[in-house]
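Example record

The entry below shows one chain as it appears in the dataset: sequence first, then structure tokens.
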Amino acid sequence: MTDSPASRAANLAHLRRRKLAKGDPVPLPLTMASIFNLPGDPAGFRQYGRFDNPTWEAAEEMLGHLENAPAVAFPSGMAAISAIFLALLKTGDRVLLPSDGYYTPRVLAERFLKRLGIEFDLRPTTSYLDGGFDGYRMVFVETPSNPGLDVCDIPAVAAAAHAAGAIVVADNTTMTPYGQLPLDLGADVVVAADTKAPNGHSDMLFGHVTSRDAEIIAAVKDWRKLSGAIPGPFEAWLLHRGLETLEVRFDRMCNSAEIIARRLKDHPKVRAVRFPGLEGDPSHNLAATQMLRFGFLIGLTLGSEAEADAFINNCALIQPATSFGGVHSAAERRARWGDAVDAGFVRLSVGCEPTEELWAAIEASLDAH
């Protein structure tokens, strides 16, 4: 068990060293195989590419090291979330979902879980404790929420949900293990889209589930094997490579976001700013108690849809794109996806560009419109 983000970061790149024989390659080899040499009794040996792969396992080892818990890899963040729902829920169960979190789990619940007899309810992140958790099999939180960046009290939710007999699942995509550790705060399961900052280069999709409950991990692994929701070895190799630089990238991104959020708050063209690191933000006090960093996402509201689009499209150092967490800064107007936000609301993902150069580009685009 590592005991600090710095210790985890220091040891992460050396995990493989412990298993190396003299003459072995130091970088992780990419194992592209659907079959393995398997004469005689197959027990105890690799058998088939849907069951396991050494490249997945190396990526899972890294993820598990960061989470301080076993990790199970999936081909996307939504595959990880789907696995949690379908491996752990049954007909007659009820799930609580955030009404203001990433929208796809709500769509999945409406279109597919309900037809299996699994019901769901919605609550805003800021009032997740209101009404209690009686009758729920699973309480699913996303904090900070995407895109609004509201925060809920994970320890309080976990304590109340456990008292009511529910398991708590936390989507930690926006923070990564360097920014927040929901398992340490009382959550039973963490899901995340490693497509974002953990990979960092916007060139693959990946996700994972982690838990310290052996039965949950066993159920999720069974679901992956039997459903075929398996990650590709090449994607696992890319994630493994990206994770080696996550701590450095995440530090730059968070530091820049803290500086830029304060400047955006003072800019006359910006009507509102949401960032947990701002002292006046509604999320700040709670975020300061349960988050290791304040993250790299900023929500800013401009005067209109047209102003928001012009700001994004004409900023030299912002990539207009959905998703977040890449080395390049990226932004989008989230109302275009149907999120319940102002038409001029922009989700800005701060990347790894030098801070002052990035701010100059942002300021120039704001001033031009």
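Notes for this example: The chain has two domains: 5-243, 247-367. Residues 5-243 form a domain with the Aspartate Aminotransferase; domain 2 fold (CATH 3.40.640.10).
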